[in-house]
Write a structure and sequence with these properties.
- 2 copies of one chain form a homodimer.
- Chain A is an alpha/beta fold and 427 residues long.
- In chain A, helix 1 runs antiparallel to helix 13 (402-425), helix 4 (103-117) packs parallel to helix 5 (141-149) and helix 12 (361-370) crosses helix 13 (402-425).
- Chain A has helices at 9-28, 42-46, 79-89, 103-117, 141-149, 166-175, 198-205, 238-244, 274-287, 293-303, 306-335, 361-370, 402-425, and strands at 33-35, 96-98, 132-137, 153-160, 163-164, 179-184, 215-219, 251-256, 268-271, 341-343, 352-356, 373-375, 392-395.
- The first copy, chain A, has an 8-stranded mixed sheet, with helices on both faces.
- The longest helix of chain A has 30 residues, at 306-335.
- Chain A is globular.
- The two termini of chain A are 23 Å apart.
- Chain A folds into 2 domains: 4-44 and 314-425, Aspartate Aminotransferase, domain 1, CATH 3.90.1150; 61-304, Type I PLP-dependent aspartate aminotransferase-like (Major domain) (Aspartate Aminotransferase, domain 2).
- At the A-B interface, helix 4, helix 5, helix 9 and helix 10 of A face helix 4, helix 5, helix 9 and helix 10 of B.
Chain lengths: 427, 427
């Protein structure tokens, strides 16, 4: 196909006219499709219905260590859940606290605790004039919302296919002791689906931050969320790497089973050094007597062990892989060679990231919305919702049916074309 | 029986000798009994095993409004859970947010939010030089731990059988705008089992605090936890009363099903005014996408409605009422008329409160501990763990078996007698 930039104005106008006709056809379908959030679809949720049978009224709800899961206690979680989630996270059970149903909540609480009480005896962030976070961008909007809520200044750092631009990260954290943290989705990143390279992880573990209470917020949300059996990204385990580098306390690592079993009804966890864990427990014991142990046991009994969980993730992949491939195929067919957009082809996770021509993302999303297809709001993937070049659109292919998704992807391509032509024509 | 205070030194010494012999017999039993916490016993937990069958793999996990409980969303809880908990709390479903598994966690988060972001636009408490809380004492140790953790100065206020000393409460809150809250367990209070009188509740609703962001922290932990069918305390509903008094925003009310189904695996909630709810949601949406809806649905399906829950609470009462009565009987038999202790006879809740002679509580608890019976640490029921007169001991009769409990209560009486005689003898 001829790149749009090489077409004459008249050619572009003709093309636009044809596209408008196509667009109108879609608009007449009265679509109502939601591609805005990384939500599992019904078929994925059905995979975990066995969880509802994992415990019944005849079950013994006693843990291996004799604890009755039905009663109070066990602040850090039952040991068999720490083992299972340890295997999922590639961490020792002793380095883990099992929380409630949401890793986002754990991250929020971690920031909140740092604000009110500081980290390992350092001044509470809330007492400082200025606290800053590095935000590899595009990134996860809900991360950015937490730091924004706490008045933490967010500094975007470019993302590359290898992870965040580490030259910038190293420079900034070593120079500015107001920089207290960095948000990371290190594997199958949100939204690009990039996985941090070995070199990136090694450089993270070897950061020399000016702030002694600087922490890497390592949200390994998609650690086992591969799309392919034979074609997977690997990530160096960060806690071990930090230990090797002599910086054991540098990282908080988060994960959950939200996209393994049921979002909102799974279990979340933090893994970090013993120093950090002791620090956290000093707070946690005031916040709760313990998290939901019955649900922890339910998950353990359902999966049996990590092999059961890996097998389960294969079934997820079988459902969502065709969706990713369909979107990529439609993007390829309609957009490749036109020079008006680029998109990622992740091997796992929940998103495809699309880059429009500068200044087009908001309009593309608006155009799609008008025809009944809701995308993640343009800008959401950047701190403060401000995408400086207005180019990034997060595509979430998992929730709609394959048929709906194909329609939505076709429409999306038309929207990209229309908005790009208008941009090129200066309209 | 002759009051100890009227006995001669020789008589007391002879009595002490006999008591020591009795004590030694108990010590030789090698007891290991825990009366320290308000934990349900195994038989109580067994009552809720049907909860494990309320949802199975064949169940439709769709809410009445069509929401799939298995997926993300519903920040404030599913509507049927808000209805059920609304009935339990005597509040409108619209005035409720359903949280996770722990009302303590909700209270902690409420204080934490006030510290970092303030209440309804007022200055965050963390930015103030001094924040104070009124603490009706004796009270619930975990409440006091939260305020202590946040560096909030705690001011004890006397408890009476009608509730906190309202003359003092009214005077202090109207004079001092650093006083931002008061901890209340208004029904079957922890540890005394007192319920606030109508007059007390009305005076609470009519408080005129100097601080516009003063809130009553109304932890209605034992709202439906009666011991008797025909012999119950009634409590005026505080939200409605605050509304009537023209102070709709004055109160945060908390409750949970922790001692209805499984502690740690139930559902918790806050009920408060629409203004307060909107204020909370501005924060909550950054903290989580939603709480565990599947567990909410599980509770709704298990109970059906409030009648099912009330019926269920009768079964709890049948199990624990004999325990309360056994302790009271043993206390009566061994201690009445001696003038060395007073105890409450609650009609609900989880505790009996015991008042020793001044300066005896710590020693009684230590003496019991040496013979293998663990009570709640003396002092725990007061802010900073400091009982000014060293008189209060919280007795938690629910967890041990009836047989064990009787042994523990007998031993406790011997310990009270021994310590009291030593005190009277000036030893």
């Amino acid at each position: 196909m001829t790149p749009y930039a090489e077409m004459t104005k008249d050619e572009l106008k003709m093309e636009l006219k044809a596209l408008q006709a196509d667009y109108d056809k879609f608009q007449n379908l009265g679509l109502n499709l939601d591609m805005s959030r990384g939500k599992p679809c019904k078929e994925q949720l059905d995979l975990s219905m066995g969880l509802m049978d994992a415990l019944n009224s005849g079950a013994d709800l006693t843990c291996e260590d004799g604890t009755d899961c039905r009663n109070y206690g066990m602040l850090t979680g039952i040991s068999e859940a720490r083992s299972l989630i340890g295997d999922m996270m590639e961490n020792n059970p002793e380095d883990i606290i099992i929380y409630g149903n949401s890793s986002l909540n754990v991250m929020y609480d971690t920031i909140s605790r740092a604000m009110t009480h500081g980290i390992l005896g350092h001044i509470p962030w809330g007492k400082l004039d200025k606290v800053k976070f590095l935000c590899p961008s595009p990134g996860y909007d809900r991360h950015f919302k937490i730091t924004e809520y706490f008045g933490i200044e967010m500094i975007p750092v470019d993302m590359t296919p290898e992870g965040p631009d580490m030259d910038t990260v190293e420079k900034l954290v070593s120079e500015d002791d107001a920089i207290k943290g960095i948000w990371c989705v290190p594997k199958y990143s949100n939204p690009q689906g990039y996985s941090y390279s070995d070199n990136t992880v090694r450089r993270f573990a070897r950061l020399e931050p000016a702030a002694p209470d600087f922490r890497i917020f390592w949200d390994n949300a998609y650690g086992i969320h591969h799309l392919y059996d034979d074609h997977q990204d690997y990530l160096i385990e960060i806690l071990a790497e930090c230990k090797r580098a002599g910086h054991p306390d540098l990282v908080y690592k988060f994960a959950s089973t939200s996209k393994v079993t049921f979002p909102g009804s799974g279990i979340a966890a933090i893994a970090t050094s013993q120093n950090n864990l002791e620090d956290i427990k000093l707070q946690l014991k005031n916040q709760t007597i313990g998290h939901d142990k019955v649900n922890q046991l339910r998950h353990v009994r359902f999966f049996g062990n990590i092999h059961g969980m890996v097998e389960h993730m294969r079934k997820h992949a079988d459902i969502i892989r065709p969706k990713f491939e369909a979107v990529e195929e439609i993007f390829d067919k309609n957009l490749s060679g036109l020079g008006i957009g680029e998109w990622t082809k992740p091997k796992g996770g929940y998103f495809i990231s699309f880059e429009t021509l500068p200044g087009c993302a908001k309009n593309v999303v608006a155009q799609a919305k008008k025809a009944g297809v809701t995308m993640t709001g343009a800008g959401a993937t950047w701190p403060y919702g401000k995408d400086p070049k207005d180019t990034n659109i997060r595509v979430a292919p998992t929730y709609p049916s394959l048929a709906d998704l194909k329609v939505a992807a076709e429409l999306f391509c038309i929207c990209v074309k229309i908005v790009s032509i208008k941009q090129l024509l200066g309209e």
